[in-house]
Amino acid sequence: MNLFITGIDTNAGKTFVTELLTRSLRKAGFDTVAMKPISCGEPEDSRRLRAAADNELSMDEVTPAAYAAPLAPIEAARLEGRSFDSSEVLPIFERLHRTHRSILVEGVGGWLVPLAQDYSTADLAKAIGFPVLLVVRNRLGALNHTLLTLESISSHGLTCEGIVLNNHPDDVGDLAADGNRRLLSKLTNIPILFEISPGQSDLKIAVA
Fold first, then answer.
1. Beta-strand (E) ranges in the chain?
2. For residue 106, which phi and psi values (nearest 5 degrees)?
3. How far apart are CA 13 and CA 89, in angstroms?
4. What pTM does this model have?
5. How far apart are CA 99 and CA 34, in angstroms?
């Protein structure tokens, strides 16, 4: 299973989903590893993904482009006198893709976050070429953000493999949650592959 994992916004739960999926796929017998090619701020997400794959990769392989400031990558890089270049990321991705049957690539922020002038997360996803998995935080506003993101994924010539509906603990009791679940199935032709509960520790993976 090879996927590019994005979210409808920052804090949608991308790392939690990528970590959960990595552990579950490895438990099911896949040699899955996970990358978060770009990070901004504390590298906790990268450490979690590395641990989910039993520390098989180095931190530099998990995250080849790391910036200190917790800002959009284009700004975080500017503060360090740097600019993002996909050549920092793609050769490492390509090597891991050659040596692993299964790789998950987590984007940074939302789908159109600018990485450099005229280059966004969507452009990186297109260069990687994997089907997209969209993480949707299940709260008020999710329908609009989801539909806009799906439209943009399609306009970039990529396929959305499915949606993960993430029930974040901070959103317990949000009245929009039940409606989101029902309406996403009606308004899109994209399947909800998983619905995640707060504190969930594994996923049921069907092995073909």
1. 3-7, 33-35, 38-40, 65-67, 103-110, 114-116, 119-120, 132-137, 160-166, 192-196
2. -95, 125
3. 22
4. 0.95
5. 13
Instruction: Annotate 34-54 with DSSP letters as a single string.
Output: EE--EEES-THHHHHHHHHTT
What is the structure's pLDDT at 208? 58
Report the catalytic residues. Answer: 36
pLDDT at 207: 64
141 has pLDDT over 80 = yes
Decide: 1 and 102 in contact? Cβ < 8 Å. yes
Cβ neighbours around 102 below 10 Å, total:
20
Query: Residue holding tokens 């619905």?
Result: 195
pLDDT digits (tens, 9 = 90+) for 18-41: 999 999 999 999 999 999 999 999
Q: Quick check: 43 and 36 in contact, CB under 8 A?
A: no
